[in-house]
Amino acid sequence: MDARAISRIRILTLAGAAAVLAQNPPPTVVAGIPVNYDEAKVGEYKLPSVLTLQNGAPVRDKKTWTEKRRPELIRLYEENQFGRSPAKPSYLSFDVFERGAPAFDGKAIRRQLTIHFGKDDASPKADLLIYVPKAQAGKPVPVLLNVSFSANAATVDDPEVRLGEVWNRDHKRVPATRTGGLGKLNPLPWLERGMAVATIYYGDIDPDFADGFPYGVRSLYTKQPAADEWGTIAAWGWGLSRVVDYFETDKDIDAKRVAIVGISRLGKTVLWTGARDTRIALVIASCSGEGGAALARRNYGETLKHMAVRYGYQFDGNYATYGDRVDEWPVDAHMLIALMAPRPLLLQTGDQDKWSDPKGEYLAAVAAAPVYKLFGQPVELPASMPEPGQGFYGTLGYYMHAGGHGTLPPDWNVFLKFVETHFHLGR
Q: Is 171 one of the catalytic residues?
């Protein structure tokens, strides 16, 4: 779903999103490309084997997966979808302009800093907002990192958060406001469970529009990406890894227990970030759909061709070449999911979000489960798709709400439960 549609229905904050979607049925033709919503017309497809090396040898143990198959898949995704990203820059710096202010009636310590991605102040930079539970002062705590469509000041209800800037619809940087953002994040339930909460605006890392290349982090490395070099999703993920670099320097953060959460295209982002950066301990991907957790070979809802035509800038140049030959694509979503193994991953979808194909996400999770089982991790996914409201929260978890695209307020309770279980909060 594109940013304007997201803005229009305010899916991230309204409990009545399902009613809105009922008045706005999913399109049957997008960008001149037909859209199928009939299971009878999905067609037959065969997924590439996640547990077979490119030379045809089977993967029977976690050592072979870790040392051979996993690196193969990372390379295939870099070449054929997200593009190659650079390593951590030597000139990365952190300007902590607020170190320990009280927040939320003294329940939290607020920290604000600017991450400088380049060598000078004119280079791309991003503001990071962090809340650490006051009750846990002096003890490193796990952290939930939220990557947001909104500036920090509009993501959290806190009048002391620096406003910063955002990209508007005319592709210009303008001052942010404290209202009108695409969803609110409530840190209090997380703080009460002994977790820090952090949030960052994705547009600070790289702009979310086709001609935004000169203004984001990718411009620090090349004048124009090659066909196998990073698009914006990989750039956003690279920026999240730089946040983890900061966490490793903060004595109040347990950098070995970092959870990341993102919605829609940012759901795709957190999946790829977790796949590449094994420092990420847990991922929550909301409605990541096509290009994320939904199987591309399933002809249902948004397709690879839709993504390539409308949002080609989010991927590398090679991705678009598979629009009319998806069966030749060397990867599919089950492999992206498997790259998180054995770390916890929760996929959240909506039963009315036909465009993002919630069933395609579920089937991808089922197809990825053998990799988790290779590590002896519990996977509780049944063969048939669960009903809305029924969740499966093993190491590879799935939850579908009754409603549309994005995250509804009650979903955050599910997210907290998932993190609480796997990070053993309160123990």
A: no
Contacts of 113 (CB under 8 A, 6+ apart): 94, 95, 96, 97, 98, 127, 128, 130, 246
The reply to whether 334 belongs to the active site is: no
Mapping DSSP to helix (H, G, I), strand (E, B) and coil, where does residue 249 land?
coil
Separation of first and last alpha carbons in the chain: 40
Distance CA 248, CA 242 (A): 10
Residue written as token pair 């847990």: 282
| pTM attached to this predicted model | 0.94
Measured CA to CA, the distance from residue 35 to residue 357 in angstroms comes to 11
Q: Alpha-carbon distance 165 to 142, whole Å? A: 28
Q: What is the DSSP letter of 201?
A: E
Annotated catalytic residue within 306, 401, 405, 422: 405
264, 286, 288, 356: the catalytic one is: 264
β-sheet with 108-116: strand ranges across: 93-103, 108-116, 125-133, 196-201, 141-148, 253-263, 280-286, 345-350, 396-401, 391-392
Q: What angle is formed at CA 10 by the lines to CA 8 and CA 11, rounded to 5 degrees?
A: 120
As averages over each run of 10 residues, the pLDDT of the chain (427 residues) reads 38 38 71 96 96 98 98 98 96 96 97 96 95 91 98 97 96 93 91 97 98 96 94 98 98 98 98 98 98 98 98 98 98 98 98 97 97 94 90 93 95 97 85
Ordered by where they begin, the domains of the chain are 3-423 (3.40.50.1820)
- In 11-57, where does DSSP find H-type helix? 17-23
Task: Tell me how far apart the alpha carbons of residues 46 and 62 are, in angstroms, rounded to a whole number.
Answer: 24
Note whether 281 and 256 are within 8 A (CB).
Answer: yes
Task: Let me know: does 105 contact 220? Beta carbons within 8 Å.
Answer: no
